[in-house]
Amino acid sequence: MTLNTMDLLLRTVADGDAPEVARMWEFEKGEISIKEAREAIAGMMANHAKNRPGRLYHLCFAVFEKDGDKIIGWCGLDGKAEAGVPQIFYLLDKDYRGRGFASQCAKKLLEYAFGAGGLDVVYGGCDKNNVASFRVMIKAGMLHHGFDDESGDPQFHIDAASYRRHGGKYAFRLERPGVAAGTGGAEDVCPGGDENVRGAGVPDAIGEYGLSVAVVSDILSHIGNTRVDVLGLTDTGGIPDAFYGGRGKKTIVRAVYIEDGEKRAIDLFVKRHCEKFPNEAAHYYNLSKFAAPIPKLFAYYYGDGENDVIVTEAVTPLQIKDDSGFMLDRDVFEPFIRLTAEFNATRVGGEYKTFLSGRYDLVEDELASIGAKLQNIYELVLSDNAYTGLRRGISRGAVASMLAVHEKLLAKIRRMEKGLYHWDHAPRNTGRSDAQKRSVVFDLEDTLWAPRFFNIGMWIGGEDRYDARYAPREELAGVYLGVYNASSGANASIDNMLDECRSIYEIDRFRHLLWNFHECGPEPYERGDAGPEEYKAAKEEIVLYYADYLANLKI
Fold first, then answer.
1. Prediction pTM value
2. Which of 51, 438, 439, 536 is 20 to 30 A (C-alpha) from 71?
3. Are strands 172-173 and 297-301 parallel, antiparallel or unpaired?
4. What's the domain range around 513?
């Protein structure tokens, strides 16, 4: 059996390989005899004969360079040490280390394991001092899940479902954007906010993203674990204005390339974030490792004091408009609910969970501040003639009632379990991945660790008399929990979920009140085609509606 990687041949040995096996079987100790080599080959062949699809006893490959005839190491999968627990292994001669060969071996072994090998899971481990081997397993997409109780050595695994979600091919880390393409440092990308870039001006170098023909060739070669030669890049300018929310410059780049002698093309979504701190790229990188339902990540860059860059598959949104009428469309809303549940249930851990928890606390940094903002609104309404139209509804008594409601809701939310939260969660930031044959969530900037049902609570938390949906909220909660409980291992009930969702929905009404109050002021975010007075009057009516609703809410 022979497996091919970009630079290597992994091949099972036969009797004719005895001289090379004699030289390399115990290369760290010294050469063995030809007789011993033939015995080793016979032992390997006997082990291989015991292998069956889905049940691996032992599989060992000699590693060759493609243009060489010398064995440079060994790699394979060992299932004989512990039945049902196949372990990945790789060992290279010291003269061939540090060249990415071990990573190529590991990726190809996993491809075989979950393909022709029919395995459900592969395990791995390394000495706690072997940093290089640790990195190999991370690069191959394996999940670091703990340490050996006795030795303290790190342990890894990856299951077939996680592998198939990402094809076992994980992202390429870019050089500092701007440097790789010779455009200088990373400058402020979009001080004015959201922007869709059309045309980078150079057909073979999308410079400000750190991309070039050579870089994209390396990205596609890394993902495919085989040599890919990009012929050219085109900035298609193919993003409709409402696609791909979030702050930053973004475009779709079409790469035409040669792979296995065939000419092919792929569209890549490329985005460079506004802010100079680890954000969207960090989320993409980590969520890929935890098999979250997100677009395939091809390449990324993030660092302190730098603008993030992501290169992902191009995805078509489920819906473009921000229109709650989608909840009446079963073909849109039900897939959205199922995807929301899968994303929220993603189990993350380690440093990434710490990263999520420490960035921004949705409850304490935003929801808890609503009380002070209500007091500020009251003072503005009283003192500023720009808000005279609100005085009939924003009274001292109404504000006192709203503050009491807010405190009760906040107390309930503080007791809720937490999970993964997608900021600005709406159908326009979800879509279908053609490459993965599944629904995905994108626009991952400001992903947080927040109350577990916050994403779905905004959509099904309100009673049916307030929000029109294609089915009663109890039925929709059942759809959500069917996915969420199975994916997370939780055992949440419909009644418990809807109770939490109602608190989330009601506190979100406060957020709507605050946003619409801002729109009544001198510098609204949006105005559309409406004249200033018409727009302001419409927003005032919304503020008054929410003020009355919240002041009279019974918790």
1. 0.71
2. 51
3. parallel
4. 324-551
